[in-house]
Amino acid sequence: MGRRAEFVPYAPRSILNKSKRPDHWFWTRYSAYPYLGCQHGCSFCYCRERKYTPYDHPEDFAYVIKPKQNAAELLRRALSRQPVDLVFTGDYQPAEKKFLLSRKMLEVCCELGFPVFVLERSPLVLRDLDVLQSIQAKAPSVVAFSVIAAPGSSAEPAARAFERLAPRVELRFQAMEQIARQGILTGSCAMPLLPGVCDQAENLEAIVRWTADHGGRFVLAGGLTLADAQRDFFLEDLQRSQPHLVGLYRSLYPPGSYAPVGGATLEIAAEVRRLCENYGLADRIPRPIIPGDKRQRNRRLAEVLANRAYALELEAAPQAKIWAQRKAAWAVEDLPQDIGLVYQTLGLRGLQSLPGVSLDLARQIERWLQATPKWHR
Residues 144, 179: one domain? Predict the structure, then answer.
C-alpha cells in the first residue's frame, strides 16, 4: 500500500505576500495560498525548493499537507489595508474538498472587491464558479490551467508520470471551456515544458489547439527550474521513469544552474508565439485592469513595455535593450500621476524624467500616447 496523506492544520501569523509592483507573467501583485504541501505531488514542482518548503524531506511535500486554518481571516485583515490589485490565490488539490479554504479565500476577495488569478490542475475549481462569477462582476479575473502535454499527444504518457496524482488533462480543458463560457479570462500555462519530454513541436501545437478549441485566450510557455533539494528530487524521479534523459538534464542543468543553459527555452517560447498567432491566441496574459483605477493608462503602457521586453528576449536581442524596456515598464508602473497628464504638461522632457527612460524610449512612449490619447477600459 502506498503512503497516505496526513493533514496537519496550523495557524500561520500572516498569509499575504506583497510585491512592490505586479509581475510581468501573471500581473499579480499579491499572493496568498491556503495550504503548504500538495497532494498532486508533481515531481517537477518548484515548491520543493528549500526557500518555499518547511519539510525536511522533499517527498513529504506530497504527503504532509498543512491547511492554514485561519487563512480567510488573515486574508481579510491583510487585504482590507491594501490598494485593490490582482491576488494570486486558490489551490484545488484533494484536501480542498474537505477544508474549503480556497473557496473561503475567494469569498474574501469577492467581499473586498479584489480580482483574482487562479492557476490550476484540477477541475474542482468549477465547484466555486459561483464565487468566481461574483468576483468577475466587480473586477476582471483570470483562471488559468497548467498543461504541459495535450491529451492524445505522444508526450502525454511520460508527462503524466511526472504529474503523479494531478487530474487528467482533458478534464482541465473541459473546466476551461466552462470558465470561458462565463466570460472569465482563461487559458493555458505550459509550465514547465520538460526538455525531451514535452517540448516536441507536435505537443506544443496540440496544447495551443486544445486551448483555442476550449475557449482559452492565451498560452504561456516556460521552462523547468531546478535548485537544491528540488533538483535532487527531480533527477532521482527522472532516473526511475526516464533514465535515458538523465544525461541531457545534467548537461542542461550543470551544478549551480537554476534555469537550463543555452537558448532552448527561448526557442520553444518563440515557437509557441508562432503557434498562438496561427490559432488567434496570445502568448501573454492580457492584463486585467482594475475598475476605477485613475492610472489605467499607466498600467496599460507598462503592459506594452513589458511585452516588448519579452518580444526582444525571444529575438535574442542584447540584454541592455531588453532591460531598458523592462525598467521603463517599472518606471511607468511606479509613477503616481497619470502619464498622459505628465506628457500633456511637460511633453517629451517629462517622459525623459522617468527613471531609466532614455530619449529613444521617451519617443516610443510619446508615439503610444499620441496613438491612444483617450484610452480607457
Answer: yes
Q: How many domains does the chain have?
A: 2
Side-chain-side CA neighbours of 7 within 13 Å: the count stands at: 14
Close Cβ partners of 194 (under 8 Å, ≥ 6 residues apart): 44, 148, 159, 162, 224
Question: For residue 317, which phi and psi values (nearest 5 degrees)?
Answer: -70, 165
Can you give the residue range of the structural domain that contains 346?
Answer: 296-371
Low-confidence stretches of the chain (pLDDT < 50) are 375-377
| Beta strand 116-120 pairing with 35-36 | unpaired
Backbone angles phi, psi at 12, to 5 degrees: -70, 165
| Parallel/antiparallel/unpaired status of strands 30-32 and 17-18 | antiparallel
Judge whether 286 lies within some domain: no
Go through the chain and tell me how many residues it has: 377
Q: Tell me the pLDDT tens digit for each residue of 131-148.
A: 999 999 999 999 999 999
- Does residue 13 sit in the same domain as residue 154? yes
Q: Report the C-alpha gap between 153 and 354 in whole angstroms.
A: 48
